[in-house]
Amino acid sequence: MRTLVFGATGNIGARVTERLIVRGQRPVVFVRDTKKAKALFGSRVDLRPGDLEQPVSLAPALDGIDEVFLVTDRPGLEEKDRAVALAAKAAGVRHVVKLSTLDVHSGIGTGPWHARGEAAVRDSGVAFTFVQPAGFMLNAFGWAQSIRERGVLRSSTGEGKIAFIHPDDIADVAVEALINRDHDGESLVITGPRALTYGEMAETIGRAIGKRVRFEALSDQQASAGVVRWAGKGPYADALVDIWRAVREGRLDTVTDGVQQVLGRRPITFDQWAEENADAFQ
Ligand SMILES: NC(=O)c1ccc[n+]([C@@H]2O[C@H](COP(=O)([O-])OP(=O)(O)OC[C@H]3O[C@@H](n4cnc5c(N)ncnc54)[C@H](OP(=O)(O)O)[C@@H]3O)[C@@H](O)[C@H]2O)c1
After folding, report:
1. Residue 50 phi/psi, 5° resolution?
2. What CATH code is carried by the domain that includes residue 103?
3. Can you give the pTM of this predicted structure?
4. Of ligand 1's atoms, which has the minimum distance to the CA of residue 77?
5. Does residue 111 have its Cβ closer than 6 Å to ligand 1?
6. Ligand 1 atom 31, closest CA
């Protein structure tokens, strides 16, 4: 079995690649930065250099590939999904597992981009599975500097809740879909075990580092000014502010038993994630 992993130098793709290696595969990774990939995986993978912005790099990368793990990002991701799905179909790939989002169901934030991406994959005729996670626990790293320097988590999410999911759960579900093929044609909606307010997550991080972490509410305007400082103005920054508003309004507090259904075990808690990553916050 030869699996081509997109986004292999990113959060979820790297975990998927490592898991495939543990399962005895030699994954093929589609990367624009081969140095970064070599630093991560050494000689345990085959490198196929390419860039999703240059669709001509897809056909050679997909040659001889059975399965694809697909990660695309940012506005316009549906065009990348379409290009990969069509090239995969033409290359005789048997199955594409796309990292999508739970928000395709709410239409919030990046949901519409991924909904169009899913439609493009479906329309290509290739067999597919969509992994639809809630927000990532990893997003909490965005609070690290403020927690380290001022002991505060600032956000426009108010008292709203969200069931962030551990990246290992996402990767485990994706690998299960890739290897066992029991979920072809399905959308796997996966969340963490419990919806929490950002104030509760601040307390959890505080417990993990042995210091009090306060929650401070921001307005949408303040949150927008903050995100524009690192992401620039535009649809990506707008999507993030939309997501935080939807959390505040109680529109993103979905909890599913998707991880239990696919993996036969409970999803990992935010407490565990905070303990594993305490160093980043102190
Ligand atoms: N964060 C959340 O809460 C959340 C929730 C649900 C769904 N999602 C979805 O999860 C996905 C992001 O996953 P992630 O966090 O694992 O991603 P990530 O860590 O941001 O990594 C993105 C990966 O894509 C690669 N990449 C970017 N542009 C590329 C291009 N033009 N050609 C080839 N490779 C390219 C990057 O390569 P380089 O190393 O070269 O940059 C990197 O490996 C997005 O689709 C997002 O919408 C996120």
Report:
1. -175, 175
2. 3.40.50.720
3. 0.97
4. 45
5. no
6. 52
